Amino acid sequence: MKSINAIRMGGADVLPIVEGGKGVAVSNGLSSGHWAASGGAGTFSAVNADSFDETGKPIPQVYDGRTRRERHEELIAYAIRGGITQARQAYELAAGRGRIHANILWEMGGAERVITGVMEGAKGLIQGLTCGAGMPYRLSDIAQKFNVYYYPIVSSARAFNALWKRAYHKAANLLGGVVYEDPWLAGGHNGLSNGEDPHKPEDPFPRVLALRKLMRTFGLDQTPIIMAGGVWWLEEWEDWIDNPDLGPIAFQFGTRPLLTQESPISRAWKQRLLSLKEGDVFLNHFSPTGFYSSAVNNGFIEELRARNERQVAYALEPVGEHTAEYGVGPRKRPVYLAPGDLTRVHGWEDAGYTEALRTPDTTLIFVDREKATEITRDQVECMGCLSHCRFSNWSQEPPDYSTGKKADPRSFCIQKTLQDIVHEHADPESIERNLMFSGHNAYRFASDPFYGNGFIPTVKQLVERILTGR
């Protein structure tokens, strides 16, 4: 394999390997600090990060507010305190080596307020800001305010072009790099556009080459591009390394750092990663953000898929094929279904799925009574963790703080499930009943000899392994 040399990124010479930031408490100060100490760029998640009590235990994020807006303010306070905590830990562990980045999602609730509060409380501890899940036009403004480098996450040259022309050209000197996140291979939320087929992945090389050609027209020929999604062994990317057409390239690892000693995920989660097979991670469209996302196929995803399949269209009065009357809710208010759909509904009811829930698209889904109660409770208890949520119809925009659409029971409370899976270490079943984000290459844990006999490396050992090829 070609030798891996340091590159200039974010005002420093660092190894061209970046730890990917993974939401709620998964990429934390411990993992990112050790990654930076190994010479790369460590990234902690500033998305509702953990803070700790005097014994070192995470402080549960409990919401006492009576309204969504009150709980939203509590969530922002938790997020700022947690982000500062993780930044301090990462900085101390890095001990001046590598770089420490903070990752946020532009579509998270109060994103700008959160990262501003974190940066104010952790001055001098964070050297870079990464941000995706949306179009973060104001990322460069925040970077300028605190004189740190910024790293937008995009999935196409077109997206970066829009960001540059609208805002980033005003802060070109602080653009530390551009993260190209492959929308078919990366874990978590993905940037698939309406014109791209989730079932037809495209080769990343021509997409990244197009990004570099565009960047050169803006004078950004030496600004690194960070390849994210599908990166496992660097020898598989030898054609990218020192390639004059691509210019400076770094590689982001999001999935592999999950399986380290410093990773905060549960032992059950780590063991599940070691047993995944190809195809166990796939793109789905269930997220309350409205984005596609990549997750492990488990009981949680299977229930969402089944819930969405038990779905029929309805009309409020007889029209066309919708002639069969059906009563919805305790008062049995009539709607009209196609006769064939009514037959299907009776079959679902016989199987225990007796509760009909309306969606924003004039359809009904059918769930059992326990699930219906859970969905309603989660919607009522919404704490505004997203800027806009299709599950609860929350919006952080005044005056109504609502998307203006009906809450969508085909989705789920993302804050609840991500908090549960990362903190319920004592319950091995938590990995079945919660969302488990992952990159599509996670099945390779099972076949990579590095993880033979269930070996789980330290971050330092993983970085050393990455730098040696296989």
**CATH-defined fold name of the largest domain:** TIM Barrel
Give the number of domains: 2
User: Which ranges are low-confidence, i.e. pLDDT below 50, for 5 or more consecutive residues?
Assistant: none
CATH architecture descriptor of the largest domain? Alpha-Beta Barrel
Overview features:
14 helices; eight-stranded parallel β-sheet; alpha/beta; three-stranded antiparallel β-sheet; 18 strands; 2 domains; TIM Barrel; 470 residues; globular; single chain; 17% strand
How would you portray this structure in words?
The chain is of the alpha/beta class. It has two domains: 7-280 and 442-467, Aldolase class I (TIM Barrel, Alpha-Beta Barrel); 299-433, no CATH class. Helices cover 32% and strands 17% of the residues. The chain has an eight-stranded parallel β-sheet. It has a three-stranded antiparallel β-sheet with strand order 9-13-12, with no helix packed on it. Helix 5 (139-146) links the parallel strand 6 and strand 7 (149-154). Helix 2 runs parallel beside helix 3, helix 3 packs parallel to helix 4 and helix 6 packs parallel to helix 7 (204-217). It is globular, with a radius of gyration of 23 Å.
List the helices and strands and how they pair.
Elements: E1 7-9, E2 12-14, E3 17-19, H1 23-26, H2 29-37, E4 41-45, H3 68-94, E5 99-105, H4 111-121, E6 128-132, H5 139-146, E7 149-154, H6 157-166, E8 178-181, E9 188-190, H7 204-217, E10 225-228, E11 249-253, H8 267-274, E12 281-284, E13 292-296, H9 299-309, E14 311-313, E15 324-328, E16 333-337, H10 339-350, E17 355-358, E18 363-367, H11 369-380, H12 414-423, H13 430-433, H14 459-467
Parallel strand pairs: 3-11, 4-5, 5-6, 6-7, 7-8, 8-10, 10-11
Antiparallel strand pairs: 1-2, 9-13, 12-13, 14-18, 15-16, 17-18
